[in-house]
Each structure stands twice: as C-alpha cells, then as structure tokens.
TrEMBL record:
Belongs to the TMEM242 family. It comes from the Eukaryota. It comes from Anopheles gambiae (African malaria mosquito). GO terms for cellular component: mitochondrial inner membrane. The chain crosses the membrane at residues 31-50, 81-101. It is found in: Mitochondrion inner membrane. Keywords: Membrane, Mitochondrion, Mitochondrion inner membrane, Transmembrane, Transmembrane helix. Scaffold protein that participates in the c-ring assembly of mitochondrial ATP synthase (F(1)F(0) ATP synthase or complex V) by facilitating the membrane insertion and oligomer formation of the subunit c/ATP5MC3. Participates in the incorporation of the c-ring into vestigial complexes. Additionally influences the incorporation of subunits MT-ATP6, MT-ATP8, ATP5MJ, and ATP5MK in the ATP synthase. This is Transmembrane protein 242.
Length: 165
C-alpha cells in the first residue's frame, strides 16, 4: 500500500505558480491594510468633525462659510491642514522605514527579517505556559495581575526569615 494517495486531475503547483500566488496574496494583504487604515482615518476625522459641531454649532456654521472677518473658511483651512499633515506623516514614516531597510542591507523581506531578528534579543518560548492563561472575566484577570509576583516574593522572604535547625 502506497503512502501517498493519487488524486486524479490534481497537479503539483510549480515554483513560478507558488511565487505568483504569494505575490498576489501580498498585494491583497496590502490593499486590505490600506482599506482598514483609510476607513479608520475617515471614521476618526468624521467623529472629530461631529464632536466639534455638537459642542459649538454656532461657530461651526460660521466656519463653514467664509465671511468678511475670516479670510478663509474654517473647513477649507482644516482640510488643507489635514492634507499637509497626512502628507508629512506618510512621508516621514516612509522615510524612516526606508532608512531602516537600507541600513539593514537587506535585499528582500526574508533577509530583512533575518537581520532584524539577529539585532534584537530572542523572546523565549513559553511552552507550556508557566502561569495562568484562562480567566473567567476581566475582574479575575485584574485580580491575578494585581497579585502576580507577590506570592513568589512572600515564599522567598519566608525562607530567608525562618531559622534553620
């Protein structure tokens, strides 16, 4: 009896097909992250606008339309500031990321992961976990966190204060 099962009509994908599949996955993942970021930015900006309108509707309406006293409407000024702030944030973050990438000397993401992994200390695995991982609720978790480490200190202090016989 053979250890592999033959499946008619199924072929093993070539390396080029696997690379193409990985490339498409990366594009989809990037598009998803961009969509999530854009959605959260729009939601945050609209929440800020709504809270400003709710707190002072009189001056909010004055800012919507330019007047003789104001050289520029408040909304156009705010949108211009938002545009410049967004541009500076994206360019700044991109420059920092590009600089770190170039300083690492990596040619692809795998090399970058290896370079960063060798620069930072390793995080030890916790298999099996030595502390609690399941909690009944938030109160149980907070109680555990407030007493965490105190039992160990109490045990060590008892061992040092008791006279040996």
């Amino acid at each position: 009896m053979a250890s592999t099962v033959e499946q008619p009509g199924r072929t093993v994908p070539t390396l080029e097909e696997q690379a193409e599949k990985r490339r498409k996955f990366r594009y989809r993942a990037g598009a998803f992250l961009a969509a999530v970021g854009a959605t959260s930015a729009v939601a945050g900006f609209s929440k800020a606008i709504m809270s400003a309108k709710k707190s002072d509707p009189k001056y909010f309406d004055k800012g919507l339309h330019g007047s003789l006293a104001l050289h520029e409407a408040g909304t156009s000024l705010a949108l211009r500031a938002l545009g410049w702030g967004t541009l500076y944030a994206i360019l700044g973050t991109g420059t920092i990321c590009f600089g770190i990438w170039k300083l690492s000397g990596a040619k692809n993401m795998e090399e970058f992961r290896q370079a960063v992994g060798s620069a930072f200390p390793r995080v030890p695995r916790n298999d099996p976990p030595t502390s609690r991982t399941e909690f009944e609720g938030l109160t149980d978790l907070m109680q555990y966190l407030s007493t965490w480490g105190k039992e160990e200190k109490a045990v060590t202090s008892l061992a040092t204060t008791q006279p040996s016989q």
